[in-house]
């Protein structure tokens, strides 16, 4: 799932903040049909500690287990 699927032109960029980012994360996790037997879900986020990271932590509180890997900007390249 990608924000690119929601844009009319994949060449466009998106600049969202705060509640808009949180809403995007919630929509992806709640409204996407992940199937009946999802063993792993890998989520790639931009570096930093922004709103999307906070929203993920809040949304994923009820999962059976999670591994969260965080890289600094230099380590992520």
From TrEMBL:
It holds the Pfam family ParA. GO terms for cellular component: cytosol. Gene3D superfamilies: P-loop containing nucleotide triphosphate hydrolases. Keywords: ATP-binding, Iron, Iron-sulfur, Metal-binding, Nucleotide-binding. GO terms for biological process: iron-sulfur cluster assembly. One of its GO terms (molecular function) is ATP-dependent FeS chaperone activity. InterPro entries: Mrp/NBP35_ATP-bd, P-loop_NTPase, YlxH/NBP35. PANTHER family: CYTOSOLIC FE-S CLUSTER ASSEMBLY FACTOR NUBP2, NUCLEOTIDE-BINDING PROTEIN NBP35 YEAST -RELATED. This is Cytosolic Fe-S cluster assembly factor CFD1. It comes from Cyberlindnera fabianii (Yeast).
């Amino acid at each position: 799932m990608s924000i690119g699927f929601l844009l009319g032109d994949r060449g466009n960029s998106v600049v969202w903040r705060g509640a808009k980012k949180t809403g995007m994360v919630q929509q992806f996790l709640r409204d996407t049909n992940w199937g009946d037997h999802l063993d792993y879900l890998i989520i790639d986020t931009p570096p930093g500690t922004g709103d999307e990271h906070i929203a993920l932590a809040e949304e994923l509180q009820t999962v059976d287990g999670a591994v969260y890997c965080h890289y600094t900007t230099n380590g992520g390249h």
